[in-house]
Amino acid sequence: MSSVLCMAMAIFYEAQGEPLRGKQAVAEVVNNRSIAWGMSTCEVVFQKGQFSWTSHTKQPTKKVRGNLGRIASQSQRSMCIKMGQ
Fold first, then answer.
1. What is the pTM of this model?
2. Residue 60 three-state SS
3. What is the C-alpha separation between 12 and 6, in angstroms, rounded?
4. What torsion do the CA atoms of 27, 28, 33, 36 make, to the nearest 10 degrees?
5. Whole-angstrom Cα distance, residue 10 to residue 82?
6. Which residues contact 49 (CB under 8 A, 6 or more apart)?
7. How far apart are CA 50 and CA 69, in angstroms?
């Protein structure tokens, strides 16, 4: 599974229904943990006890797959804007 897919799943399950800032916050948490712990995005997202939804969801559902492109695009854009790129 790619890091973009793992990030998109984390954003979808943790911040669905939230405005863009809520989605950005989830992305920041995952990125900060990845850097601090020296782990990949997927390792952070699926580390036991980090996100409750991972205990019952390992692959994106049909609903998530339908939204992944938009979620991934938004999260990448917002992280680039935040980092000044």
1. 0.72
2. coil
3. 10
4. 140
5. 19
6. none
7. 24
